[in-house]
Write a structure and sequence with these properties.
With about 350 residues, the chain is of the alpha/beta class. It is built from 16 helices and 5 strands. It has a 5-stranded parallel beta sheet, with helices on both faces. The model has no long low-confidence stretch (mean pLDDT about 95).
Amino acid sequence: MARHMVWLCGLLAALPLAAEAQIDLTTLDRGMTGPRAQVLVLGTVHLSGMPASFKPAALDSLLERLAAWRPEIVTIETEPGEECDTAARHPARYGADYCASTAAARAATGLDVPAALAEVDKTLKAWPAAPAPAQRRRLAAAFLAAHDPASGYVQWLQLPESERRAGDGLDAKLVDTLVRIAQRNNENYQLAARLAARLGLQRVYPVDNHTGDRMDVPDTKAFARSLEAAWAAGGGDEWKQRQKQEAILGAADDLLPLYRYINTPGSLKLLAEINVSASLRASSRDGYPQMFVAGWEIRNLRMVAYVRETFRERPGARVLSIVGSSHKPWFDAWLGQLQGVDIIDVASVLK
């Protein structure tokens, strides 16, 4: 009997203890030396869906408050050049249209995406305090060749009006691209790039990712129908009321109240529940809604990693991440778990 008990105790000791407490990683940065990074996540609507009456001036009040917070780094929801280049090298996996073509910028500058990315890094490391217009034009062209038109527009906005012309790598086609960007209803340009230029920053940082949520399913139309049905079932009257309120606020001349509304905990919680909870509850023969949730998590994890990379070498940086509001709960939660990082309450900035 005694031998049996010794054997049993030994076996139990070798098994993992299910009730063992996990290590609390949130306490590891207590007592850290130096400043902590401050990260502000701003949930945004996609301005491409705004009514025809939308004018960029409607963002002025919002821009004032964000500028007053004085971020040193601004991230945006679009794919980085490295990711676009990777996808282009794997068309069988990611398709031939993963990112827009940079052919025009390559023709003007002679730079493919890897060379353009290297040129941008090299240029910014030696960037002067008072760059000449020719330097800004050259850098804008390199950004366009590097799959980063928003940062190219940041440089364009900091040129005097008389210097916004072709030359130094910018040919007529690229100038036309930058002029058309100014007319586009896109938060990467009308919000992030305008803010960066106003603050004297040299660029914005693309952090989107779609390498993990491009579903390998036999019937993409069936996948879309299944997902839409799950969301419709999970929305209900509360979702309809949110859409109605968002439409009212989105038609105003000042969009600051809209941004306050879409960044409230209640609004964000509703989005999260429709995206994830409703998808996980949905009945589907192929499990498509559940697959979407897996892809959604992969996408957000990789986006958060991209954001972290922007201030890896800058402890204590002030970082503004502008992202579709449905991503904000994941950004807040996962960025908030990182060491030496504090999440700033967006309501305190927009008040």
